[in-house]
């Protein structure tokens, strides 16, 4: 069963306060819960639902970042996040509510950071997919880039981690492999290899799925892994010359 189809109903009774609880409460006519926003997941499915909900809400906020909600961005939310036609109405309700409400993206990012405070690689994947959405109309605007950068800071990502994600979005022939591997060109090969192995483990799709990243969006994680491997291969060639 697709994760998108049970977002609203699946959250009823879940300990989800804060801005997400208020948003969903406005859709069903009441608060989801008065419990603190950092409460633990009761099931693996709910972990996936939280991740999916985070993407929908932040994508809605991102679509307003440059003041122009383009058709391409709306199509991207549907197509790039693998939302089936028969579930688009429910997801659309969440997206539209998040888009029109006055609450900014910051409180949502803070709540997501609290929920995933022990899973930094999952937070990195949220940032990675936001770039994916922003690229839908062919160009990431400065306002979109600033918003994604601010979200990464709220998440607690370092500048090296953010720059690695941003660099990995480029074509393989244009990216800087050292930036992807959060390294410097003057680092020795053994030091870079340790970083490569660490990143390979943290961004492995199987690990991310086990931590609640839905299979519907795991393709972007696979691309990140391919980029990490490509960067390592490039650096080995550069260092051997």
Terminus-to-terminus distance: 51 Å
Helix content: 55-70%
Shape: elongated
Uncertain ranges: 30-42
The fraction of residues in strands falls at under 5%
Radius of gyration, in Å, reads 18 Å
Task: Describe the protein.
This protein is an all-alpha fold and 241 residues long. The protein has one domain (4-240). Helix content is 63%, strand content 0%. The protein has helices spanning 7-11, 18-28, 44-62, 71-79, 88-100, 105-115, 120-134, 142-155, 159-168, 177-180, 189-202, 205-210, 219-240. The model is unreliable at 30-42 (pLDDT under 50).
Summarize the model shown.
By secondary structure, this protein is mainly alpha-helical. Helices cover 63% and strands 0% of the residues. The protein has one domain (4-240).
Give keywords.
0% strand; 13 helices; single chain; 241 residues; mainly alpha
Give a topology summary.
Blueprint: H1 7-11, H2 18-28, H3 44-62, H4 71-79, H5 88-100, H6 105-115, H7 120-134, H8 142-155, H9 159-168, H10 177-180, H11 189-202, H12 205-210, H13 219-240
Helix pairs in contact: 2-5, 3-5, 3-6, 3-7, 6-8, 7-8, 7-9, 11-13
């Amino acid at each position: 069963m697709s994760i998108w189809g049970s977002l609203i109903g699946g959250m009823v009774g879940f300990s989800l306060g804060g801005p997400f609880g208020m948003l969903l409460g406005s859709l069903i006519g009441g608060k989801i819960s008065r419990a603190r926003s950092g409460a633990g997941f009761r099931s693996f499915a709910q972990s996936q639902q939280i991740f999916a909900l985070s993407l929908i809400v932040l994508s809605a906020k991102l679509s307003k970042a440059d003041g122009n909600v383009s058709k391409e961005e709306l199509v991207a939310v549907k197509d790039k996040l693998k939302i089936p036609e028969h579930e688009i109405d429910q997801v659309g309700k969440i997206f539209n509510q998040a888009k029109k409400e006055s609450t900014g993206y910051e409180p949502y990012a803070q709540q997501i950071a609290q929920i995933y405070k022990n899973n930094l690689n999952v937070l990195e994947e949220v940032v990675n997919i936001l770039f994916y959405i922003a690229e839908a109309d062919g160009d990431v605007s400065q306002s979109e880039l600033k918003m994604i950068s601010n979200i990464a800071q709220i998440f607690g990502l370092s500048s090296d981690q953010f720059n690695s994600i941003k660099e990995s979005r480029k074509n393989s022939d244009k990216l800087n492999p050292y930036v992807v591997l959060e390294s410097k060109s003057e680092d020795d090969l053994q030091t870079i290899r340790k970083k490569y192995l660490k990143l390979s483990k943290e961004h492995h799709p199987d690990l991310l799925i086990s931590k609640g990243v839905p299979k519907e969006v795991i393709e972007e994680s696979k691309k990140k892994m391919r980029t990490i491997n490509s960067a390592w291969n490039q650096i080995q060639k550069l260092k051997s010359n």
